[in-house]
Specification:
The structure is a homodimer.
Chain A: H1 6-13, H2 17-24, H3 33-46, H4 52-59, E1 64-69, H5 75-90, E2 94-99, H6 104-116, E3 121-124, H7 131-139, E4 144-147, E5 157-161, H8 163-176, E6 182-186, H9 194-209, E7 219-221, H10 227-235, E8 243-246, H11 249-261, E9 271-275, E10 289-292, H12 295-311, E11 320-323, E12 326-328
Parallel strand pairs in A: 1-2, 1-3, 3-4, 4-5, 5-11, 6-7, 6-8, 8-9, 9-10
Antiparallel strand pairs in A: 10-12
The structure holds a DNA duplex.
DNA sequence: CTGAAAGCGCTTACAG
DNA sequence: CTGAAAGCGCTTACAG
């Protein structure tokens, strides 16, 4: 496929490359109607499409951004990606999707490759393993927005849920339903990932505020593979919790598998709330009470912040954007 | 962030740009150890990363591919994207994800933009609205792989499920469970989208082979919003179906909502199988019998085919790659 | 074993 | 109103 270049168009239209370029960039200021017509005709005849790469090299921008998610299997990530893609498409940007699998090394590779490819900015669900690398980006004024996770050491605009409130809503609702022994299970706290840490913190605060006892045995952050064991442990306590809050959708899935196998009755034997609204919440038996994140809006906002940064050189202050969780009461509580 | 260029490295190492370039491309054939050392030191000192865009312009390849999905909401699409991303990452390619929303115009825009951005190839779940545009790509020998859908007018490598077999497995299983009045519901047949058409065809063949009556009232292809009406219609027939096959995951969701609201007992009042294994299949009550697509393998294969094409100029014959469906028997039948 | 030169396909100040 | 020239940051034959 012999690519048509601006040179070919220039020749056919009988003008110079410069003039074609002016036309393409809509700098018609001093262009005669006559010339415009001829150029247009030549472009159509040849089926010319400008080479974006060449333009990018010259202009030092690619109109491409990247989103690096920590774990594409979370429904939250998928929704955010979708929203980012939508917003970018509306604004003439393309998005490269990368999945770091919560592995700092994979993440570092992506970041380096993406910089080499000259993406104009990145939206990242950061692991905490590449602080130095991010620091370089920040210092170099590279457009960056974090989602879901705060890295204390860095000042980067971050979009995330009001996690404490999310948990508070859930705990208060349990309380209203008469529960006092309430547990919480999240995925591993090992890397101090923001939503997990904040949800645990929020849990403690909420329990305290609502006058409920905070017991260590009711608070667990473990890998997905250990959730079964954790439930075995919690439910065989002398005083087992009567309600459990699942820290995210994947944890919720594991809990549901568990109660299903053991034929544990929800909500009579155990009440359940999950953070993250899941697509099957309404068809599960019983319908699941959840705390939804406005994932779509959050993704959109992240994209919006990033594109603003890209267009404005330096945007000034750094902000943490907290989004409101929404309790959706159904039948599992 | 002042970008370091090959020129800066050359200056520091005291050699020419050419030599740096040779080094970067590992053409060490005649390079002295001494020079290598100096170059390496200079690169490290400056933290130099080559500009991929400049290289792309010269080499006329970007090591970037795109995947355009018809509808990112299908779990199948998400899995395919994931697999493509994995495979590409292993092979030094980046992937741009686009969501055409089954809208030919949006699709056409993407294709044009992506070509302008010089992506090396595309994996597409094609709508049937851009045959001419695809023809140009094919004629120009542009690397292209279709997934999920065959466009008869075009000869393009295509990766998809053995849809007839998938349906056959489901129908035979219904039959073994004693069902004779079996219905099938898919999304709209208006655009003659391959999996829908083939699943309906497969249904007719299977019913015939198994000696069951094929009745038009039991066969529906409608938009998701009409599935409720369709079920109302089917189930109020004098002889309503006792089993229904859902054409994909989204249809299955709608059916599940319906039976849930009406408190229809699965499988006693109505048996159910869905094409596409869904994450909640095992936690639904009852556990759902499904026909799974090997989505991950399919995505991987598509990526593999595409990268081979990209590396080999013209790959010769065009093939349709059919993947084996797998019936997973659970409790909804 | 290494360097000078041309070129990839654009854009952009500047001259006329 | 339009064109010649330089340049974005690389790679690649070719010369020496």
């Amino acid at each position: 496929m012999k690519r048509i270049t601006i040179q070919d168009v220039a020749r056919l239209a009988g003008v110079s490359k410069s003039t074609i370029s002016q036309y393409l960039n809509k700098r018609y200021d001093y262009m005669s109607e006559e010339t415009k017509k001829r150029i247009e005709a030549a472009i159509n005849e040849l089926g010319y499409e400008p080479n974006f790469i060449a333009r990018s090299l010259k202009q030092k921008k690619t109109s491409t951004i990247a989103v690096i998610v920590a774990n594409i299997l979370h429904s939250f990530s998928t929704k955010v990606i979708r929203a980012v893609e939508d917003y970018c498409n509306e604004n003439g940007f393309h998005v490269i999707v990368c999945n770091a699998d919560d592995d700092p090394e994979k993440e570092a590779n992506y970041i380096r490759m993406l910089r080499a490819k000259q993406v104009d900015g990145m939206i990242v669900f950061p692991t905490s393993g590449n602080i130095q690398l991010y620091k370089e980006l920040v210092d170099g004024n590279f457009p960056l927005v974090f989602v879901d996770r705060i890295i204390q050491e860095l000042s980067v605009d971050t979009v995330l849920l009001d996690n404490e409130k999310a948990v508070y809503l859930a705990i208060r609702h349990f309380r209203e339903r008469g529960h006092e022994r309430i547990g919480i299970i999240t995925t591993s706290l090992h890397h101090r990932v923001t939503p997990r840490v904040e949800r645990i913190e929020g849990y403690k605060k909420a329990m305290f505020e609502l006058g409920l006892a905070v017991r260590d045995e009711y608070i667990k952050g473990v890998d997905l593979t250990y959730i079964e064991d954790t439930l075995d442990f919690m439910l065989s306590l002398k005083e087992p919790p009567t309600a459990i809050l699942a820290g995210n959708d994947l944890v919720l899935m594991e809990i549901l598998k568990y109660v299903k196998e053991r034929k544990i009755n929800i909500p009579d034997d155990l009440a359940l709330i999950g953070v993250d609204d899941v697509p099957f919440a309404t068809i599960f038996t019983p319908k699941l009470t959840t705390v939804a994140q406005p994932a779509f809006e959050m993704g959109r906002r992240a994209a919006q912040l990033l594109l603003t940064k890209i267009n404005n050189e330096r945007s000034g202050l750094v902000n943490i954007y907290r989004f409101e969780p929404m309790l959706i009461v159904r039948d599992s509580t």
